[in-house]
TrEMBL record:
The keyword Signal applies. Keywords: Signal. Residues 25-217 form the Outer membrane protein beta-barrel domain. It holds the Pfam family OMP_b-brl_2. It comes from Solitalea longa. It comes from the Bacteria. InterPro entries: Beta-barrel_OMP_2. Residues 1-19 form the signal peptide. This is Outer membrane protein beta-barrel domain-containing protein.
Length: 245
């Protein structure tokens, strides 16, 4: 992650502000509507909301052990997609960036037993189709670089939902992977910053962005050893995305 932040920092400040414009990226700034594609590296996790009595001995009817802690564990993934950018005026663009995101999120459960500590790691597997609609505010161009901030909302749906339904039909209670379920679709907020770097024939834009689901995404009606101590789960992610326009 340090290398990613360093790359973004260099992209922001690695060019002289006093030099003359060198590249036009194919005169992209004169186009009302332009397109591109994106590649991303993502780190997904959960914000965990626990029941008040989650650590009370005997509070979980599915386990005789006492739960000490529930910790979200970050997991790396990747994304790829397309970009449609509509120029509103000199400083504002409207961006639609549909993409496929492949991220697994994990939860670590720490139980206390009479003789030792027991740690269980549960993985929530997802393949998301994300449909973000974002507003981009751009600074004045300095040399071949223009800085920007971006924010908006996205609709997220799990394209593995049909497979999950098939899995439910053949449910095996000993299969821990099926004990944590999230809603098939939800809304999330996104905000971040980036830099447009103008090259001779195209524009390259590294971007760092955070996202957080607006509502609890844990599926209701699922009560088992893993979900009983939970009051809610919120999906969060750190996205490092490279746009090519």
């Amino acid at each position: 992650m340090k290398h990613i932040l360093l790359f973004v920092f260099l992209a922001f400040f690695g060019y002289s502000a006093n030099a003359q414009f060198l590249n036009t990226a194919g005169d992209i700034d004169h186009e009302r509507l332009n397109f591109g594609f994106l590649l991303g590296i993502d780190r997904g996790s959960f914000t965990v909301v626990k029941q008040r009595d989650f650590s009370t001995p005997g509070s979980n009817p599915f386990s005789p052990d006492t739960l000490q802690a529930i910790k979200p564990m970050g997991s790396m993934g990747f994304s790829l997609g397309l970009l449609a950018n509509l120029k509103l005026n000199r400083h504002f663009d409207l961006r639609f960036t549909p993409k496929f995101s492949f991220i697994d999120r994990q939860l670590e459960y720490q139980y206390n037993k009479a003789s030792d500590n027991k740690i269980l790691l549960k993985t929530v597997e997802s393949t998301f189709l994300e449909l973000p609609l974002l507003l981009k505010f751009k600074s004045e161009r300095q040399n071949d670089v223009r800085l920007y901030v971006v924010g908006g909302v996205k609709f997220v749906t799990d394209i593995r939902s049909k497979k999950k339904k098939a899995d439910d039909i053949s449910y095996n209670p000993d299969d821990d992977r099926k004990l944590v379920k999230i809603n098939n679709s939800f809304l999330a907020l996104e905000a971040g910053l980036g830099a447009d770097i103008y090259l001779e024939y195209f524009k390259f834009s590294p971007e760092l962005k955070l996202s957080h689901s607006m509502n609890n995404i844990m599926k209701s009606g699922e009560d088992n050893i893993i979900t009983h101590p939970l009051a809610g789960l919120f999906a969060e992610a750190l996205h490092f995305t490279m746009y090519f326009e």
